[in-house]
Specification:
The chain is an alpha+beta fold. Helix content is about 15%, strand content about 25%. The strands form five sheets. A three-stranded antiparallel sheet has the order 3-4-5. Strands 1-2 form a two-stranded antiparallel ribbon. Strand 7 and strand 8 form a beta hairpin. The longest helix is centred in the C-terminal third of the chain and has 9 residues. The protein is globular and about 55 Å long.
Length: about 180
């Protein structure tokens, strides 16, 4: 499933009507306690691939500017995003990707980022594909993209994310 996102650095900043379709996109959600009201919190988004300012960006602003098409009644709802929420420490400990999903038929589908792949100290491993041929892989990306599987995953719809952005009295995401 791909999802259109606006204001992404993969596109020029000066064209607000252009979008990029991602099959997945990683952002950081940071929830902070309000300094004036002890029980109130705010959730901010840190997305190194966005043009949206300020940085970090309040959750509701990030959703509005990244997915402006979502409120269009003619928009096909199957292309709305889903948000797989993962605790930061789990993601840092368990996620790895060698970017092999970006390299098909001997070429890059898009230029890879300048920073090194996230491998968590792992080496590229060899797996057998369905034809019995060995192929190199060093990624568990598919297990993060998939919203089904053996383990229970915390997945929010766009509407649920908007609701969450309005709830300033909850300090923890249910994960």
């Amino acid at each position: 499933k791909c999802c259109p996102m606006f204001k992404q650095r993969a596109l020029p900043e000066d064209d607000p009507n252009e979008y990029v379709c991602w099959d997945y996109h990683v952002i950081v959600m940071r929830t902070q306690q309000n300094s004036t009201i002890a029980t109130a919190t705010s959730t901010q988004i840190l997305d190194v691939d966005t043009w949206i300012r300020p940085y970090p960006t309040p959750l509701s602003q990030y959703l509005d500017e990244s997915f402006p098409h979502a409120s269009d009644p003619t928009f096909n709802k199957q292309y709305l995003p889903l948000f797989h929420v993962i605790k930061a420490e789990d993601f840092i400990r368990e996620f790895y990707s060698d970017r092999s999903h970006m390299f098909k038929n001997g070429k890059w589908s898009s230029p890879p980022p300048d920073y090194p792949p996230i491998m968590n100290g792992l080496k590229i491993i060899t797996n057998d594909d369905h034809d019995g041929n060995e192929r190199m892989t060093g990624s568990n990306l598919d297990s993060y993209i998939s919203i089904s599987g053996e383990t229970k995953k915390c997945v929010y719809t766009l509407a649920e994310m908007y609701e969450r952005s309005k709830d300033s009295n909850t300090s923890e995401w249910t994960i």
